[in-house]
Design goal:
The protein is α+β, with helices and mostly antiparallel strands. It is 25% helix and 18% strand. It has helices spanning 2-21, 48-59; strands spanning 40-42, 70-71, 87-91, 104-108, 113-116, 124-127. A six-stranded mixed sheet has the order 1-6-5-4-3-2, covered by helices on one side. A hairpin with a 4-residue loop joins strand 4 (104-108) and strand 5 (113-116). It comes from Streptomyces edwardsiae. Pfam families: Ribonuclease. Keywords: Hydrolase, Nuclease, Signal. InterPro entries: N1-like, Ribonuclease/ribotoxin. Residues 1-25 form the signal peptide.
Length: 128
């Protein structure tokens, strides 16, 4: 009986260690607080056009669309509420689209990055 309990405790400990090691968070295992409660995506898993837009954001442009860098108002209320001017939006090219399409990257002054492919109906936090 004692041997059975010891074996059970060891199995339970192994299970806990295994579960603690499993995570859908960023590369270091921690999801930033600004992404709490949202779906996340690693930057490398974004469409190539979104990664290119992020490269342009990181280098300060030049941007292909006139509205790139415009203040994003967050009127949908899906991102954390911040003062006006906190968020900025950038177009993600959509192959085959005759206009800007529905894909955007939105950045926050605190380093947050969000991606939408449905024109602000939903957002995914981008882990960089």
């Amino acid at each position: 009986m004692v041997l059975r309990q010891a074996l059970l405790l060891r199995l339970l400990a192994c299970l806990l260690v295994l579960l603690a090691g499993c995570s859908s968070a960023g590369g270091d295992g921690a999801t930033p607080s600004w992404a709490d409660g949202m779906g996340t995506v690693q930057e490398a898993d974004l469409p190539a056009e979104a990664r290119r837009t992020l490269e342009l954001v990181d280098t300060g442009g030049p941007f292909p669309y006139e509205r790139d860098g415009a203040v994003f108002g967050n009127f949908e209320g899906l991102l954390p509420q911040r003062e006006r001017g906190y968020y900025h939006e950038y177009t993600v090219r959509t192959p085959g689209s005759a206009d800007r399409g529905a894909r955007r990257v939105v950045t926050g002054r605190g380093g947050e990055t969000y991606y939408t492919d449905d024109h602000y109906a939903s957002f995914t936090a981008v882990l960089r």
